[in-house]
Amino acid sequence: MIFLFGALAAPVSALQTNIKIETYNQAYASGANNHTYMYVEPDSLDMVSRSYMHLNDNLDYYAYRFDNTGWARSSGAFLEDTNVPYNWMSFNNWPTGPFENPTRLPEFYDFEASGGGPLVVNTTLETRTFGLTFGQHTAVPVDEGYTYFGTLGISGQEFVHLTVASNQDDVTWAVTVLDPEGRFITSYNGADGDIWTLPFKPSVSGTYYVVLQAFPSSGTFALFDILPVAVSPQLIAPGNIITGELPTGEIVIRDDTGSWVHQEMAPTVHTYKVNSGNDVASLAYVFNYPNGILPITQMHSIGFTSSAFEYGYNGGVRYDEGAGFPSNGEYFFRGGPYYVTVIGGDGTQYTLYHQMNSHGALPLNEEFQFENYIGATVTRGYTLDVEEPSILRMNSTAPGGDLTVRLTGLFEDGFRNERTIVFSNNLQSSPEYYLPVGEYFVEMVIPSYVNHWVEFNLGPMVDDTNTIINDIGGFIVDTDIFQMYNMTIFLNNQDNVTVALDVTIYDTSGHEIHNAGMLLANRWDGSQIQPHPTYWANDTFSYLGQDWYDGHAFVGICAYLVNNNTEIPATNSYGDYPVDLTIQWTNSLNDYFVNVESLDVSTGAAEYNFTLPYPGDANELHGLMLNTTQGTWYNVSVMSGDIGGRTPTLYSSYDGRTHSTSWTDLNDEYVGTLQDYSFQFGAISDYLFLEFDLARNQAIDGFLWVRITPIETHQLLVEPVTPLGPDILAILGGVVLPVAIGVGVIVVVYIVYVKRIKK
Length: 759
What we know:
- The protein has 3 helices and 61 strands.
- The strands form 11 sheets. Strands 1, 2, 4, 7, 11, 13, 15, 16, 18 and 61 form a 10-stranded mixed beta sheet that branches. Strands 20, 24, 26, 27, 29, 31, 33, 35, 36 and 38 form a 10-stranded mixed beta sheet that branches.
- The longest helix is centred in the C-terminal third of the chain and has 5 residues, at 728-732.
- The radius of gyration is 32 Å and the shape is flat.
């Protein structure tokens, strides 16, 4: 199909735009129980413009969207003889700690005809794509209700300016750039006839995706012009100052009438780069806006970015910070290159100053003084190299308003993390921070007329069972999914000391799992350790959660108080005392579970019968390690005896950690009685653990018979977006386009293929 829009102004005499529409139809019949089960796995490169359900019968359904506490079940219905839009990809995020990206979790669907008979789930997924080329304008007509995906091949371009122009009012619109791995690079939300340039640093070579949506207030479509330009940023060497002007203005005089008019124009965009080597530097900026009778018509901004990503999105978010309508400020950084982009117009002037601004390596585990008497807020920059996983606590004599500390880490995996450090006036009350291996820099923001002391307490966590801790340190311990662990800390010092410990356990992502206090003590008679009359020389606590990663965890320990306990009460405190500690970290799953058995239900039904001898315990845990098939819906049938209560819980191995689904969600499809019942679940991985927490009547020998049956489940198939080149004629096999079209836009809309699958 070829559409000619002759009345729309285009940047050149004629623009040829190729819109490719791919449709993919899938139809799945119901199974033996007249239900159709569907599974949808999240993929950041699954790009769908719009999807539909085609109904030949009234249809009811449940959607099971997994989340951080299990799943959220919602219900809905469709009417027969309709074709309705339906979004299959409404995934929930599973949050992590500060050093991992949240995980998008899959979803299951259960469809049933309202009358209970056989049914067919018939759906069509449609994807609309267009190609972009560097240095070439591309006009894109966008229909309301559809998402469009532009493809741009990048290989070797250092930096890109992507200008998006809306050709109409009464519309809001959004554009997002994703890299070849689906990671978020940049975005912009516009309105009416805005023209904006998105500056970004490419991450890897490959196909980038420009995601475009429009929401017209009236009408059904909007027209956009998109122009990608490769740029080579100008280097600002340390000690150099750059001045520049943003000349673009939207108040112009027409040549034909001499009238003053407002004309939407692209802003002026200048990008520079800076590099500080392995030290800390800063880039200071000031803006000078014009004063006069003409208004400021252009948006102004300054942005700072690099090759790094930040945690917080599926796969990562490109590091980018900045300000709109900036006046003055200063960015601190370490290494590089970093890129600074200035955007605006109306004759606005700006100045950029790159200066080395380091106070050297951050002093650790000792007090140092900071002061400022110059009458303005100053920032001190320090380097901090962390060569093994560590924990940090900061204490200071400064009240909260007299010091702000920002800590930024740069890691080998290309990510960065920035945190504001909260502190107190003593070690015990100061918050604790887990620091992975990396290169950090510290910014101490000091108001004027301030004079205080500060101490940064940093201690390593060792991959060993014994360590010496001066104030702060810890251990690295092995963990595995589904497991439970006991931890015992032993005090080894041959001395008369009582030691107060604050113990915090972090998972691999830096998320705090558990915290507890310990008070340990030893007595030394000159030849051997004697028991303390009040306190033990070791302490054990059990964290019964099963939310571990497949890898390791970190045990942070702060020895905030060491007292000589020769006298009671022990009040003679030792400072910087080397506390000798040993850790015992043991897998305790079998200590808490009466039985843990294995069951393979990956290809067919299987069962297991737990015998529950009389009298047993009032409460017992029994578990099944399940081999399953990811993306399959399962039915669980249970018969039991001598049971007064039961609470099943499902644990799943997903994205290298343990996801749990409680009985609150598992009982959504519950049928039966206390003793004999059934429920259902969806397998989001190939390896699951099903726990039964039983309350025994303790009257007779009991049993727990469990049968797990897989139910036919269909996975929604999504075709990947393929790059679309600019030459439509080659694709169409030499279709002749009209020659005399005047000033306009040629929009070639074509269907490459239509796929259908039936099961």
